[in-house]
Predict the structure of Membrane protein.
Amino acid sequence: KMGVYMGMFNFFITIPQILAASVLGVLLHAFFGNQPVYGLVLGGVSLLIAGLCTLRVAEPGTGALAAGVSAQQT
């Protein structure tokens, strides 16, 4: 079972790398005039957007549902 999880983890690491390697060159050529520095900027902007998206993730045990459950248990 551990091998299956390791294989799945490997897929989630390698598939984005393969997609980035195959798509980033086309994006740089089409939109940024073959300037590789803009690929780095695109990565930084994507990192900021991903960081902001994590702010929307609720932590377990918070919110109205958790408050209602804990109020019923006491």
Q: What stands out?
A: The chain has one domain: 2-73. Residues 2-31 form the longest helix (30 residues). The mean pLDDT is 86.
